[in-house]
Amino acid sequence: MRILMYHLVENMPGCPMAVPRRAFAQQMELLAAGPYTVVAEDELHTMVATGRPLPDNAVLLTFDDGYANTVTTVLPVLDRLGLHAVMAVCGGYLGPDRPRHVPHPVQEMASVEQVRQWADSGRAVAAHSYTHPRLTRVSDPALAWQLAGDYEVLTEVLGRSPRTFAYPYGAYDPRVQRAVAELYPLALATDDRHRPDHRHPYALSRIQVDPRWSVAAFRTALDSVADPATAERDARATDLPNSREVRK
User: Fold this and answer.
1) C-beta neighbour count of 18 within 10 angstroms
2) In whole angstroms, what is the distance from residue 50 CA to residue 140 CA?
3) 178 three-state secondary structure
4) Predicted TM-score (pTM) of this structure
5) Fewest 10 Å CB contacts: which of 1, 5, 10, 161?
6) Residue 226 — left, alpha, or beta (φ > 0 → left; ψ -120 to 50 → alpha)?
7) Longest Cα pair distance anywhere in the chain, in angstroms?
């Protein structure tokens, strides 16, 4: 299985977080045509809970930060092709106390109504912290507040609790993992080199999609990631199997 990480899907040359619209549509058409199988969040949870592997060509699509763009631009493409996906949302961006400026390339974040529209389409909503700090750098009380605040807001908005957490900036360490585990069965990290390994449910690897990739480069990225056994060997070599901070 591979987990792909997107942010914006927009024509913003030079922005490392914005995959051009045409490139995105081509990538989704490739996935829809095969040999890949785009799976739903529930299938990832089943893999983690039971250890039952998904097909080697399984792909999970994730979209971080909760942009309005994810609903207005991405969702129509997914609907047209019948693809599942997960949108990671910061609860603090949804209410009246939303920060005036958020640390993202654009400031147009999804509204409550748009998050519900995404969920009503049958696609999953994950948590992404309350206001998107680097969780490895906040105090214990602040960490608890970031996690609980997002969980509570999304539960109220969706009418059900989110089941997946995505680390802001890809930053986590054992303390953050323990806190996340109090609320969520699994968490998504960032590691372009390896496929997700169900034995490490709080450090599931994702491939960050590069805006510069051609369709051929996109397919190469999908096909070239290492299997979990390689990831385990690399983790032992680093002596830090569960600590990472990725620039995002």
Assistant:
1) 21
2) 31
3) helix
4) 0.89
5) 161
6) beta
7) 47
- Per-domain residue ranges for the chain? 2-238
- CA distance linking residue 41 with residue 36, whole number of Å: 16
pLDDT along the chain (248 residues), means of 10: 94 93 98 94 92 87 96 98 98 80 84 97 97 96 97 96 96 95 95 74 93 94 71 40 42
Token digits of residue 35: 């040999």
pLDDT at 241 (0 to 100)? 39
129 Rama class: left (phi>0) / alpha (psi -120 to 50) / beta: left
CA distances from 208 to 29, 30, 104, 185, 205 (A): 18, 17, 16, 22, 10
User: 100 CB contacts (<8 Å, ≥6 apart)?
Assistant: none
* Angle, helices 21-33/215-224, rounded to nearest 10 degrees: 50
The SS3 call for residue 236 is helix
Helix, strand or coil, per DSSP, at residue 235: helix
Residue 229 and residue 220: Cα distance in Å, rounded? Answer: 20
Read off the DSSP letter of residue 67: B
Per CATH, domain 2-238 is 3.20.20.370: yes
